[in-house]
Amino acid sequence: MKFLLSRLLGLLPTLFGVTLIAFGLIRLVPGDPVEIMMGERALTPERHAALMQELGLDVALPQQYLRYLGQLLQGDLGRSLVTREPVVSELAARFPATLELAAAALAVSVSLGLVTGVLAALRRGGWLDRALMTLATVGHSMPVFWWALILIMFFSVGLGWTPISGRLAVEYDIERHSGFMLIDAWRSGQDGALASTLRHLALPALTLGTYSMAVVARMTRASLLEVLREDFVRTARAKGLSEGVVIVHHALRNALIPVITVIGLQAGGLLGGAVLTETIFSWPGIGKWLIDAIARRDYPVVQAGILLTALTFIAVNLLVDLLYGVADPRMRRVSA
């Protein structure tokens, strides 16, 4: 508990820095949000001044920042300059879609990455090791947008297995209680709704998870190879334990510490990578919302998106620290 409290207190300066960066970066982008909203021809100087005052953009930047901090302390993210809707409500409507996509991509990257890394380590120097690590290097090097287009051309256009965009086929009309399409489709009871949701989710999740999968595979292989040289692994084998027990219960568990760190970093990075993925697949999540907001100079929306991404990284890193103690009990004593 003491460790957790110390970490939470240490996050306060980080959060303050994030708010400052989120507030300042979008204002460095050229363009007047009022002109973008109304259009230059339809906007008179009087109307421009009135809108600037209405949106709170007529005061100096330090005053705007202090007002922004005051709203944050009250749990208020402001209102969108374009829709005039509370940013919190727009965020709540779109965040489940991004979270669902990120969770599916993380499941792809962790499951395939761990299996790939373990197989490569057990066949070190062989053709399987070289083939798997070559694929991991290629996956790590490919731009997200290029890989997405390749998958679309092969699975959607060529084979016709998966849809190109959206989260659910138009013939299904389900009530969206949770915002998570998999849950809502399953609860709806409509034949084919869940399968349609999975088909829509498959390509975006594979696109987003490929880069992370490559990183997890390479780290798993390196960490497992290091652990397999340790004395306790040789001792376990000398006791007559099966190779599967030695690998899973002894070697792999001790090799998971650096792997957990990488998985945590990749989980936070999936939100950032979702910007391109959501744009390509027309996925109605935070990433696409942010791209549209940047184009329209919607300051409160961009600030909320950056703040949410930063909070996600912070929360994931904190969770990783706690998981260290689960994977290796020795870390609990070090943290204490």
Could you describe the 3D structure shown?
- The protein contains 14 helices and no strands.
- The chain is an all-alpha fold.
- It has one domain: MetI-like (MetI-like fold, Orthogonal Bundle).
- Helix 5 runs antiparallel to helix 11 (about 245-280) and helix 11 packs antiparallel against helix 13.
- The relative contact order is 0.14.
Note the gap between the termini: 9 Å
CATH superfamily label: MetI-like
- Assess the beta-strand content as a share of residues: under 5%
Mean pLDDT: 79
Total strands: 0
* Fraction of residues in helix: over 70%
Secondary-structure element sequence?
HHHHHHHHHHHHHH
Number of domains: 1
Give a quick summary of the entry.
With 336 residues, the chain is mainly alpha-helical.
For the structure shown, list the relevant keywords.
single chain, 336 residues, mainly alpha, MetI-like fold, 76% helix
Lay out the secondary structure:
Blueprint (H helix, E strand, L loop, with lengths): L1 H27 L4 H6 L6 H10 L6 H13 L13 H36 L4 H15 L2 H15 L22 H8 L4 H35 L3 H8 L4 H38 L5 H10 L3 H29 L2 H6 L1
